[in-house]
Design goal:
Length: 280
């Protein structure tokens, strides 16, 4: 399959009332595991990396691997910049061949969020790439920076997208990055209201720790892209930890396979939920 556009995957998800899994990766093993799971499930996915993670995964190394893996995959795979913070990194992602970018202007005043989203839209248009924006503030830790949650105000959604017509919109409905402190309390009524106000595909960040039932409720309320980052990093570490516990002298290739397998199993499990086919 060819390198896919996020916009095409979200459009197809809307037609079938499902969500596309967007899985954060940080190295070759995570990329291999995610692609292997997508091929096993015969399901499109999105590979993504957040700007804050580039300190650990230099862009000039990780970006070509992500794009190359997507091009070689047996299923459609889009490549996405998650939580882009600056226009220079946005431009770099587009130059590397990413098929979509997120500009996170959620910490800015509304007018500035609109302005930087429009700057990103103009840049992405030259490449035929999609743009994800964020309205409201998703809580938790993204790359070590703790954010206070601010629920997306449905009254601002329609005007925001009128002035800055992003291809997808990340919303804050009680979801949070990182590990939740307690059971996530998602505001489904707010999500329903937002969905009724706009045809734009909605994005759920902070997927780690949300129950399968709540994932499906979100999908039924208009969520079309679900981000999984922390669970992927945990699965990578857990796979290596379990391998080391079984071997007195762990070897490199065994560690490699354990990391791939951990991510593979995590991505495959989430894909089954996001396809929204078997409801409990």
């Amino acid at each position: 399959m060819a390198l896919a556009l996020m916009t095409d995957l979200l459009r197809e998800a809307e037609q079938h009332n499902k969500a596309v899994g967007a899985f954060n990766v940080a190295d070759m093993e995570m990329i291999i595991g995610a692609i292997k799971a997508a091929e096993t499930a015969n399901t499109p996915i999105i590979l993504q990396i957040a700007q804050a993670r580039l300190v650990y995964s230099p862009f000039h190394l990780i970006a070509p691997m992500m794009v190359s893996a997507a091009r070689a995959a047996k299923v459609a795979v889009a490549v996405h910049l998650d939580h882009g913070q600056t226009l220079d990194v946005i431009h770099s992602a587009l130059d590397y061949g990413f098929t979509s970018v997120m500009i996170d202007g959620s910490a800015l005043p509304l007018e500035q969020n609109i302005a930087i989203t429009n700057d990103t839209l103009a840049a992405a248009k030259k490449y035929g790439a999609g743009v994800e924006a964020e309205l409201g503030t998703i809580g938790g830790s993204e790359g070590g920076a703790e954010k206070k949650a601010i629920t997306t105000n449905p009254e601002t959604v329609k005007e925001f997208l009128r002035q800055a017509p992003a291809d997808a919109l990340a919303v804050a409905i009680g979801n949070a990055h990182g590990h939740y402190k307690g059971t996530p309390q998602l505001d489904f009524e707010a999500l329903k209201t937002i969905h009724a106000l706009t045809p734009a595909p909605l994005v759920l960040h902070g997927g780690t720790g949300i129950s399968d039932e709540d994932f499906r409720r979100c999908i039924d309320c208009g969520i079309r892209k679900i981000n999984i980052a922390t669970a992927n990093f945990d699965a990578f570490a857990d796979g290596i930890r379990a391998y080391c516990a079984r071997h007195d002298t762990p070897g490199f290739f065994g560690l490699h396979e354990a990391a791939v397998q951990g991510v593979y199993e995590n991505v495959l499990r989430h894909i089954a939920v996001f396809n929204n086919e078997e409801k409990s």
